[in-house]
């Protein structure tokens, strides 16, 4: 949160958790007061719905707690747009969202997500088919190349086996560079219901993405060049990323250019175990900028850190 206060000094920072979220959703018109974590099968879906409900009511910016700002927030937010966000390939991410209060788009997105989050697997599959029947791509074309897996039972069985194996390989992602994101469109459509709700509302077809965003007055930036830049730079795993940002190897990494750094849980857990950062590293630079005092700064071990271009 120190980076938020440094790079968004004009914003009031509210840390939302399960103990205080109701304080921010008190008016009857927001939503039925009975809506809570128990209303959703998974806590992650409640979190997705909650961020939409808060933005629909108050406006402002939602940042996941795992996002470090490295430049003024104004570079990610377009205050004149209906909605600001970042996209990964063909779909919008949900860890950074910004909008004005009472936007119809956010209200529809909130309500649509709540509706489809209550569906069982069979009803949800029917919903996806209905979207496709209207010419809507549930993930705006992302993972559409995976349609081969649906061509026959054999393809489907092979795909399930690959996904099963990948989940086990990914358990070792902190020790290996071979992280796998299996090409399984159906899996991602079920997992990313918040994005399916979004593209259902704006009727994403998977084509002319920028034209679609312009139609709805959306400001969507490429997260591959911004907040996801570190993760995709060299195909690094969690250990590689933590080593890079905590050592002088990152001394020439342009923090301003990437706007922010989105860390996954594995990276946060590894950072929690660290006691020091090397002079010039991303972590030490951010610590100085924010006035924080979490890590002890030690001399750099790399005499000439590599230069990186995004």
UniProtKB/TrEMBL annotation:
| Any one GO molecular function term | glycosyltransferase activity
Q: Which SUPFAM superfamilies match?
A: Nucleotide-diphospho-sugar transferases (SSF53448)
One Pfam entry for this protein is: Caps_synth
Tell me which InterPro entries the record gives.
AfumC-like_glycosyl_Trfase (IPR008441), Nucleotide-diphossugar_trans (IPR029044)
Q: What is this protein called?
A: Ribulose-1,5 bisphosphate carboxylase/oxygenase large subunit N-methyltransferase, chloroplastic
């Amino acid at each position: 949160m120190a980076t938020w206060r440094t790079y968004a000094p004009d914003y009031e920072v509210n840390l939302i958790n399960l103990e205080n979220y109701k304080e921010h959703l008190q008016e009857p018109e927001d939503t039925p007061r009975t809506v809570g974590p128990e209303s959703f099968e998974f806590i992650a879906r409640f979190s997705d719905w909650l961020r939409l409900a808060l933005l629909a009511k108050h406006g402002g910016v939602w940042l996941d707690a795992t996002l470090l700002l490295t430049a003024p927030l104004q570079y990610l937010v377009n205050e004149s747009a209906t909605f600001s966000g970042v996209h990964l390939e063909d779909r919008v991410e949900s860890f950074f969202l910004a909008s004005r209060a009472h936007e119809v788009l956010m209200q529809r997105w909130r309500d649509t997500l709540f509706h489809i989050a209550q569906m069982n697997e069979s009803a949800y599959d029917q919903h996806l088919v209905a979207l496709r029947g209207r010419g809507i791509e549930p993930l705006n074309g992302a993972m559409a190349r995976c349609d081969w897996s649906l061509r026959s039972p054999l393809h489907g069985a092979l795909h399930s086996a690959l996904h099963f194996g990948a989940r086990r390989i990914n358990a070792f992602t902190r020790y290996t560079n071979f992280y796998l994101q299996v090409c399984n469109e159906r899996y991602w459509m079920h997992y990313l219901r918040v994005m399916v709700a979004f593209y259902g509302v704006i009727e994403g077809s998977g084509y002319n993405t920028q034209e679609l965003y312009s139609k709805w007055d959306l400001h969507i930036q490429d997260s591959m060049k911004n907040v996801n830049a570190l993760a995709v730079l060299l195909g690094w795993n969690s250990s590689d990323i933590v080593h890079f940002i905590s050592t002088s190897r990152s001394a020439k990494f342009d923090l301003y250019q990437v706007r922010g750094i989105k860390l996954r849980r594995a990276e946060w857990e590894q950072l929690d175990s660290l006691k020091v950062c090397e002079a010039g590293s991303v972590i030490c630079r951010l610590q100085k900028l924010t006035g924080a005092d979490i890590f002890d700064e030690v001399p750099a071990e790399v005499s000439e850190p590599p230069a990186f271009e995004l």
